[in-house]
What does this fold into?
Amino acid sequence: MTLAVLCGSNGNALDPDSAAQVTDSLTAALLTAGATVMVSPASAEDVPAQLRHLAQLAADGEDGQDDLLVCADDLVAHPSLLWTLATEPAGRSTALVAPAEHGDLREDRGRLVPAETGDGTVRFLGALCVARADLPLLAAAATRAAELADADDLPDSGGALAVGVRNAVDALLPALLQAGLVPIATRVRLLRATRVGTEAELSAARAEVAAVDEDAARLREAVKERDDFFTTYAVSTWSPVVTRACARIGLSPTAVTGLSVLFAVAAALAFWQASRPAMIAGAVLLYLGFVLDCVDGQLARYTRQFGAFGGWLDTMADRAKEYAVYAGLAAGAERIGLPYAWPLAIAAIVLQTVRHMTDAWYGVLHDEAAARRGAGTAGQEGAGGVGAALSRASNRVQADTGSVAYWLKRIVVFPIGERWALIAVLAALTTGRVALAAVLGWGLLAFAYTLGLRSLRALSMRVAVLDRADRARHRDDGPLVRTVLARAGWSAPLVLAAVAAVVPAVLIAVLLVAGPPDGVSRVALAVAAVLVLGAGLSARAPHDGPLDWLVPAALRAAEYLTVVAVSLVGDVPTPVTYALLFALALRHYDVTARMEKGAPAAAATGAVLGWDGRVLLLALAGVVGVATDVEGLLALWVAGAVVVQAVVDRRAARP
It folds into this structure.
């Protein structure tokens, strides 16, 4: 980590000795942690020279693989705020901001974007950390800003001339935003950070900093500022106590994640027993496991122990725990003679996994739209239309923190806290089948709500993201698609993927209505499999449509529904079907979690046959009558591949 301290210029009325002391406490903390501190050699009044110095530091950082923390010398703040900037997880750039009614920037889903007139919600506080992956962008942006400063045409974050630029860092952030950077917004909450320009302001700022217990504030700030309703009021009110205890006894976030898994598995086993005491015990264990699930993130933020593997493991553990609980509820209901519990669990795992795939890619879409907006190449979302109106309404609701509308919006999407709370309450009071039916029903409503609104907003954004990614990996294409079907070069990938999802759904409906399978159903299965494989014909086509971010989710739906159709035709025991779906879900969460958490892509790209190979294998197994054996073996193969790859990557990540 390199810290670049930039000397202030315009209007700074501090005594030179006082100005030199402002960053002493900030830099001391980073020096202790092993950072390299560099004070800009350029004159305080020579903003272009400071920007060129930053460009050179960025170029040097590219060679040395070092993040660059940039700080103005008029910032008075708690040292841990700079350390927070420097330790943002997943290698993302971040900037220090404070809430402001008419700020120069806008926070959107935790990211910073340029503000339009009257649109700003935060103001920049003169410190930002540029991740190593963004150093080339920094070098180019700083060079461009220096050229503009030489020409006296330096823009500020709102696009106007920078009349009040006090420091080169004030010119740098707007240049980065215009270059397409979408940094994380690190908001000042309980800690203090102020930029000062006079001796009186300096004294007042130091007094504010000294008045706050830094460690206690850091612990409280480890709790997410905006979380879901159940988490906010039933967990975060007391989880910091557990977080502090874990820190004192030296538990790592990964160890806490492991404990939360154990609690969830114990809850699933209790639900399997299905007696009333066991169901109540399972509900309590589930709640405590969720508390630990929140604590692992709080502990990581409190101790600043982050890593790509830890983020990946947390995501994978969350899904594995939830789906293990579904299985426990279904097995317990079957144990006491309640029918249809396993089909409900199967429907729930399919729905929830497809939902999460849309969540992951909508997040990528939103970040890309923000980056293009900063660079002035965004779509027309802000110009009008239904999508634009929905976007503005959503922003207004999100800004009204704590209102009824705010909480309704948070609850209706059925986040994990609400899911676990619903399961715990219904399991304790009723049966596993009732709990699964409620999860499925609410999940369907939430999926319809989010998919409809996001699709309208995506049409307004007019941004493509899947075409910029490793498409074959995220589609999970196998050798059949990559080497044969993709040669067809068909277009309309979303249409073909949607058809692939609808076909097995229709076949399932027909099989459920028609009763026990017969020879005709096997022929229908073969035809359906061929139609599903048709989604591979457009694998090489540009995935640049405004809704093509839905292709991975549609392919997941197509494959999972094919598994269900094969199970119906082949009379596969429902637990075996669920086990295969569980394994496939882990495989696909592995791919998206690596993308979201900045973990390296697995070496075994396209492993385990790909979605196309698995569909073909399962269809053949259903036709020849060995579906149960093939599904069981495939479940072991897929799950084993995920575990082995995780172990290999974990060992490779260790120093």
User: Anything to note?
Assistant: Residues 2-221 form a domain with the Spore Coat Polysaccharide Biosynthesis Protein SpsA; Chain A fold (CATH 3.90.550). Residues 9-22, 155-164 have pLDDT under 50 and may be disordered. DSSP finds 26 helices and ten strands in the chain. The radius of gyration is 27 Å.
